[in-house]
User: Fold this.
Amino acid sequence: MSHMNMEDNNVVNVLPERYLSWLVASRINFINEMKEGRPLRYFSAHLPVMATWPSHAYDGNSYPMNMTVKGIGLIPRPELLDSYSEMFEDIAVSSSAKHHMETISERIAAINKLYGDIGNFDPSLLGGLEIFGGKTLDNLSENNKASLLYVGMSHTERGVSYISFQVNGLIEILNKDNPYYRFLLASRKLFEFDKFHIFQPDYPFGYLIRVVEVLDKSPWSKAATPHGHGH
Assistant:
């Protein structure tokens, strides 16, 4: 599938720059606001709604679709994966003997090094960890297709700006010995004890999401733009 212009509402098999930039900037802003002690806000760029469904056909008597909010992040390019995993692991170990707020600057510096360059990321991949081993895992064990819906907003000089997009992808369930699982776990452990996380004792699996298509779902004014969008 060729890479097309999302402004024309076409689909692509990588995250277009507009959405990739929003995901990167949102994380940097969230982490730096946390460092400055600002009140926590909902981290929509990290918490899309994930829809999964089993392989069996809809029988008319049930609701096979499962929807949940999952923590999903960007993935470094393959040649950077191990180095960032090792960096995050080393910082997590060195921070473990101190109160987590004493090491906040070092931990944020590490994540900013990764997110400071949009070129560090593979735009065809996303990933997250499984916590509860529930219906999402059951469905993905049968059917490796899933959809993510991202929704966000920001304030600009022109007023409120909204962004929303759907990512359809193929899911690989990752075991703990997988290098992508290692990176996802190291990223989580870096901020495990900060206020925006609910501590979890274990993560039995990870998910690697290979982007198949991206659909623009951003709201728009029919009065201003009568054509060219679809939901």
